[in-house]
Amino acid sequence: MGRLRVSGIREVKGVVRVPGDKSVSHRALILSSLAEGVSTISGLSGGEDVAATRRALVRMGADITVDGALVRVEGGVREPDDVLDCGNAGTGIRLLAGMCAGIDGVSVLTGDRYLRRRPMDRIAVPLRRMGAHVDGRENGRVAPLVVRGGGLRGITYASPVASAQVKSSLLLAGLSAQGSTTVIEPHPTRRHTEEMLTAFGVRVEVREERVTVHPGPLTATDVAVPGDPSQAAFWVVAGLLGGEVEVPGLYLGHGRAGFLDVLSRMGADLDVDPATGTVRARASRLRGADLEASHVPGVVDEIPILAVAAAAAEGSTIISGAAELRVKESDRIASTVAMLRAFGVAAEERPDGMVIHGRPAFTPAEVDSRGDHRIAMAAAVAAIARAEGDTAIAGWEAVATSYPGFAEDLVGVAGAGACAPADG
Ligand SMILES: O=C(O)C1=C[C@@H](OP(=O)(O)O)[C@@H](O)[C@H](O)C1
Ligand SMILES: C=C(OP(=O)(O)O)C(=O)O
């Protein structure tokens, strides 16, 4: 489907079960492929990004079968027999490149036209320091990447970017290195790799923004993937803007619940039950709240939808220290500002963020996702909750990378006719 028509304004009410966490899903497939024995994974994300990682691991020799809702993985990986196509997934290519650096032989990793623009030097530089040969277009800066792996040594690396993908890439390479590998981050990022490595029997030490992995074998285990908080954020904001929404079963651990803190600062009426990972959101009068560099890793994927909340809030919001957004699926500073402006919202780009001036109502819009799933979904929420009339979202197919059932879920909470494929 190319374009989605969304008709607002509608109340958004009900319970939404979001897909399995995308970050956890990539890691569950990778670690179980590295492990000895058979692992099972329940609740795996059904998005294209995770499917691309699954196919890449099969190319490397992992035996992965899907049996209803359960995925069975028999570990064992070697040099892949063909190019690994990581699709649209930054997480997939960077984590797999780290894994390939630890494997004897040559791996070639590529992706779609959006992924082939994203910076890979952030992993190529430290992986080379560990002893891998990493090359790619533009002097190894962008994919396709060629990794000749094996014979690594552990290093201590202070990453210039706060990135869980960089950290995870090096930790995965470190699993087969001589000696331990330590990554130091400018700000702490999500800890899924550390948590899951521990579950697979690997020794990992975590101290604030410093993580050390000790090489060793992985033991197969069973992983239950929790709901994805980054997907829940769309429904939570939809509920806050007009309705009442409950999202159960979420991962609300380290580095992933930051959007709830930001929304609370904005005056959101939220109930959070950490025991069940359930978040309830009720219609609220929001006010603008600024975001700075130290907040960004905790909300990095939620900024487009937080920007929609800010656009509907009283007063202005300044987001700074968020230059990383420029190297996501799209330049998310430019694409978020363009999306808000299409709805008649006053917003300006800054080199490392944006300024958003809230307004009570939006005008219906023609939005282009720019190939970015999060821009498309954020626009759908803006349209349903605040724009009287029909909004058209071009490039809706991007949503399949992380949330193929989003449009169905929108109908589920906003009623029949809330959205439909549009011509053109
Ligand atoms: O490690 C991960 O699973 C992710 C880390 C983040 O990227 P960076 O680490 O590049 O910030 C995030 O944007 C991405 O969606 C998922
Ligand atoms: C940035 C994202 O993912 P990735 O980096 O894996 O492409 C995202 O899902 O918003």
TrEMBL record:
GO BP terms: amino acid biosynthetic process; aromatic amino acid family biosynthetic process; chorismate biosynthetic process
GO terms for cellular component: cytoplasm
Keywords for this protein: Amino-acid biosynthesis, Aromatic amino acid biosynthesis, Cytoplasm, Transferase
InterPro entries referenced in this protein's UniProt entry, alphabetically: Enolpyruvate_Tfrase_dom, Enolpyruvate_Tfrase_sf, EPSP_synthase, EPSP_synthase_CS, RNA3'P_cycl/enolpyr_Trfase_a/b
Enzyme Commission number(s) from the entry: 2.5.1.19
Binding-site list for 3-phosphoshikimate: K22, S23, R27, S163, Q165, D301, K328
Superkingdom, taxonomy of origin: Bacteria
Pathways per UniProt: Metabolic intermediate biosynthesis; chorismate biosynthesis; chorismate from D-erythrose 4-phosphate and phosphoenolpyruvate: step 6/7
KW Amino-acid biosynthesis (keyword) present: yes
Active site (catalytic residues): D301
Cytoplasm as UniProt keyword: yes
Domain named Enolpyruvate transferase: residues: 7-410
Localisation: Cytoplasm
HAMAP family on file: EPSP_synth
Subunit annotation: Monomer.
Family classification: Belongs to the EPSP synthase family.
The protein's name in its UniProt record: 3-phosphoshikimate 1-carboxyvinyltransferase
Organism from which the protein derives: Marinactinospora thermotolerans DSM 45154
Lineage: Bacteria, Bacillati, Actinomycetota, Actinomycetes, Streptosporangiales
Chain's gene name: aroA
